[in-house]
Amino acid sequence: MPWENKGSGGGGPWGSGSGGGGGHRPPDIEDMIRKSQDRMKEMIPGGGNFSGKGFIFILAVVLLFWLGSGFYRVQPNEQGIVLRFGQWTNTTEAGLNWHLPYPIETVMTPEVTTIHQINIGFSSSNTGGRLTKRDVPEESLMLTGDQNIIDIDLTLQWKIAEPGKFLFNIRDQEATVKIAAESALREIIGQTDIQPALTEARDSIQTKTQVLLQSILDQYEAGILITEVQLQNVQPPEAVIDAFDDVQRSLQDRDRARNEADRYRNDILPRARGEAQKQIQEAEAYKERLLNEATGEADRFLSVYKEYKQNPEVTKRRMYLETMQKVFQNTDKVILGTGENNVLPYLPLNELRKNSQ
């Protein structure tokens, strides 16, 4: 070492004194400085002339290394956050970049493409290659809009959208996202009845929760993007699940009976309406026919009566002849006349009938 005494004697790093029974003496500071200067002169061009080219060369080398330390590389899955005296000033993209060297500026390179996952209502762990889930009741039990308790588990995925805001606007980012997500989910569940929440409203709950959670994080200026919200398990609390299943089966039986009744109604009502319409149309046609017949008979009677008033005898005679014509039109007729000699004529009735037929 430069400060070691290379002369004879010694017994310690400082060597031994020149007298007085080998006592210690303080190091020779001037000798140490002189030896250090000699070594520096050997390294510097010009024999250590600090007032000339040697000093400028040292200064240039130091400055070059200092400026070169400002180069940094940002990977494709990262963004660079440049800090000037600890304050965020710039964001750089992937590739080779440069910033003012330390201590003026520093850089942070958070990953912005990594998808992070948070579970609400349950925790999962991988033990021995097996994924085990444990329910967390203080997170999963929630109150629905119709004052029922529901056990609901949710998984959300998020990534960094704006690294500067993500790093400096919120503290403990993952815990903040989880608390905000649980708050948003409880608000949506509090506006939904238990029956829709268990059945057809699952997609709606997921969408509304994602929109509300993103709105909360945007208000915080958290620089976080929620990529997916998915319900994992939605059921009544374990203590009442059997009773709830009975209620569900009863509701299903009710719905089935209602559907059967609706199906019967939809079958019988159109046929009944069709039959009623048919009868109405037949009645209308019958009424029209009777009215027309009655009108025709009345008109015929009035015309006959008019003729009768003008010439009653002729009308009577004509009516008598027409009536007799109708009576004898389709009957066999045999006409007998009376002669002066009162001889009974022979009429071949059988032959006459054959001829008439």
From TrEMBL:
Subcellular location, record wording: Membrane
From the UniProt annotation, give the residues forming the signal peptide: none
Q: Where is the composition biased (Gly residues)?
A: 7-24
**What are the boundaries of the region Disordered?**
1-30
Q: Name one Pfam family in it.
A: Band_7
Give the GO terms filed under biological process for this record: proteolysis
| Domain of life per record | Bacteria
Q: Which residue windows are transmembrane per the record?
A: 55-74
Q: Which GO terms describe its molecular function?
A: peptidase activity
Which of UniProt's keywords are assigned here? Coiled coil, Hydrolase, Membrane, Protease, Transmembrane, Transmembrane helix
- Is Transmembrane helix a UniProt keyword of this protein? yes
- Topology versus the membrane, per the UniProt entry? Single-pass membrane protein
Question: Where are the annotated coiled coils located?
Answer: 247-293
**Start and end residues of each Band domain:** 69-248
* SUPFAM superfamilies assigned to the protein according to its UniProt record, in alphabetical order: Band 7/SPFH domain (SSF117892)
Q: What does this protein do?
A: HflC and HflK could encode or regulate a protease.
Q: Which protein family is named in the record?
A: Belongs to the band 7/mec-2 family. HflK subfamily.
Oligomer status and interactors: HflC and HflK may interact to form a multimeric complex.
**Name of the protein:** Protein HflK
- The organism of origin for this protein: Kiloniella laminariae
